[in-house]
Structures
1.
Amino acid sequence: MDNSICQVYEDEIQSLEEEIKLLTEKYEESQQESTFFSDEEILMSIKSLQREFEGESKGHESPSDLKAQLESLEKDLSFLMKFTGIQFTSHSKKTVEKTRSRTVQKHRLSGNCHSLSFQLEFQLLEMQNKESVSAAITDLSIIMKSGEDSDMRKLVSSTEEHGNLLTFFRSLSSYAEWCEHRRCTFLHFK
């Protein structure tokens, strides 16, 4: 029995020694990476970035112009939300891949249109060549709270297949508006 207990302790000691060795190697690698640049090179890079920042900040608009532009954009957004009934409640974006000519971003949107809730997940693929930039939507997934309706299921599956978000939002706006009218009518007769 003593031999088995000793063996367990020896195994534990060996695994801890291996872990210490791995951590020591990682630490040494990180130290080498941090000392890759000299202090002078780091200071020169900081000064260069400061000069670039100062040059860029001179070209920006004044705060009052930016504030006016922001207010104008907020009015436009408010008008579009009232006009279409679509209101986004959350958005997240994550860059999955980025090269010189190609960028892939994963987007997640959620919101509601009148009384219908929706959630979209898709990847936006942007390809850039010398003359232009093209974008395509891939891996589109739509989740609707009112998935019982066969017409809505057809719209969702067609949109997921073709990746045409403009058609989806136009159809959703119209469909949700008529759902709201139907709901108000049924409430009137109750």
Note: The chain is about 60% helix and 25% strand.
2.
Amino acid sequence: YRGQHAKEPQLSTFNQTEVKAMLGSYTKVLFVRDPFHRLIATFLQGMGINPSFSSFVQDVLDSGTHNASAAWKPLVSLCRPCLVRYDYVVMFGFLRQELGHLLRQAGLPVPGLLPELTDTQVQWTYSWLSEQMFSELSAQQKQQLSRFYRRDLAAFPFSSSFLSD
């Protein structure tokens, strides 16, 4: 079916009145993740072709925000939180707790629909990985990453991020 392969129009191609009308009847959920954790996950998944995390980060920084891959592009530029009024923002690392609340709000049976999530283990693993990977970066790279993700860090409560000042 030809319609299945057609590219969907971007939200930014509509004016604010059209966007408001389209999104008004939907429950809008945004899933967010610490930008440094997103970088680590992208590197570990092999999207970074570099042998070291430091050289991968340098390629990310050199690409700039306009040429960045969606895997590491700042969330604010991807999800437009100033344009779209999200009903829920779900933080990675608190999925079990927040998804349970979201399902209850939707009137759905939580025990039957919620997968087994191990948030505590995920948080510990990313805490350890973040510490290891962050230590590989130069002071200049750390500062540049904080600048690169400054809008994400301001928009979302990533208080324990290594990129927070």
Note: The longest strand covers residues 29-32.
3.
Amino acid sequence: APPPRIYTRTGDSGFSSTFTGERRPKGDRLFEALGATDELSSAIGLAGEFSSEKGHTFVGQLHKVQCMLQDVGSNLATPLSSAREAHLKRTSFSEQPVLELERWIDSYSEQLPPLRAFILPVGQFLLSQSGGRSSAALHFCRAVCRRAERCVVPLVQAGEADPNVAKYLNRLSDYLFVLARYAAMKEGKEEKIYIKPEP
């Protein structure tokens, strides 16, 4: 038998399906949220590769976050307005992952020097010999995470997604920020701070 095709052609008309079987336009805010979450997971995968090259011990946490983002996507793809009990059992999202992120944030924050200025998140990325790629990639993840959260909040406010999903993304951006600082510290890379330009 021939291998299954990767393309289905079911979205050629500009519509796609939710897990509950609804057909919605691809521009629907639900698919915007799903796309942003998928992009975030891909960015975290890239940051994980850079961090693995440097031997960082938090790479396992990043992989776990990617798995949790799959669960976030399942919850988003199951609008509460059309979900049946069987759907809800499979796609509910608890507060436990939020609390786990908070524990991780506290653990890394205790090891970091106090923050006294705005940190510039880029610049280090292109310095291939600087050892700053992990930190810069994590800062990029943080920015993508903020966008994903902005896409998800309206769904939560409309009663279409679990509030814990928005909470998770909110804590995740804090975790990624702290982790970016931690990576820079562990690699002996000085953080670049904002300096007001001369008038």
Note: Residues 155 and 161 are 6 Å apart (CA to CA).
